Amino acid sequence: MYLTIHELHDTKGYALTKLCNFAGIERSSYYKWLNREASGNEQFNKTLIPLIRDAYEERGGILGYRQMTIKLNREQEFHVNHKRIYRLMKILGLKSVCRRKRKNYIKSTPEITAKNVLSRNFNANGFGEKWLTDVTEMKYGISGKAYLSAILDLGDKSIVSFVLGHSNNNALVFRTFDIAHEQHPDAKPIFHSDRGFQYTSKMFKNKLDNAGMTQSMSRVSRCIDNGPMEAFFGTLKSEMYYLSKFNSYEELEAAVIEYIEYYNNRRYQKRLECMTPMEYRQHLLSKVA
């Protein structure tokens, strides 16, 4: 309580008398607390507070207390508990600005369908065992629309390839696949998607067959079958897209490229032992070697 009063008075300029009255304590008690010798915990909190503020501002307020905890522990070599970070962020009035938006689905008549080979088994022991893919819509300017196609690896949770385009068509999806296959020609993963028209085309099936990959598809109206891919798009939109207005396609494209570079190389994930996807990929490779 005293720390909350101190921060609100120090950073927000709130009147000390009003804060003490609201908290139901005497001003003299506050000053007694302020002038006492701070404990080790309190000294550590004073160290953490400016670091939390800086980290919060670094990514425009997208970090919640869990991501904040991982970031501070990794970059400052702390061993701080997430509950402490939660309390301090609450005192500082810092809350993740991220929000989520529901996805609209487009019905299509498939040429080819495949079984749900993946069957919601989202675990993988290494890179290139299981790939997920999808397309999501984003807007820019007054009425412009762009479509992001991406492939996610379940081993290290990295984005293997992505393409932003003006149209949600076969060319967009095929190019995303071609980039992934060209960069990782030896990978022969289970390749999972929803039943969008691009993935159910004969041409796409031929691409998978020629690459030696096994096709897998979500069941009708079961978006959870492609859950990690949906989760990535939700994270990208909440941490980047919803936070800004993009006046042009070029602005949106630059933001997407920057975010995916950040996601792959600098965004720590608790499920990856607090590593980034690229760090975790090297970690997996070192275990095999």
From TrEMBL:
InterPro entries: HTH-like_dom, Integrase_cat-core, RNaseH-like_sf, RNaseH_sf, Transpos_IS3, Transposase_IS3/IS150/IS904. GO terms for molecular function: nucleic acid binding. PROSITE patterns: INTEGRASE. One of its GO terms (biological process) is DNA integration. Pfam families: HTH_21 (PF13276), rve (PF00665), rve_2 (PF13333). Residues 106-285 form the Integrase catalytic domain. Involved in the transposition of the insertion sequence. This is IS3 family transposase. It comes from Alkalicella caledoniensis.
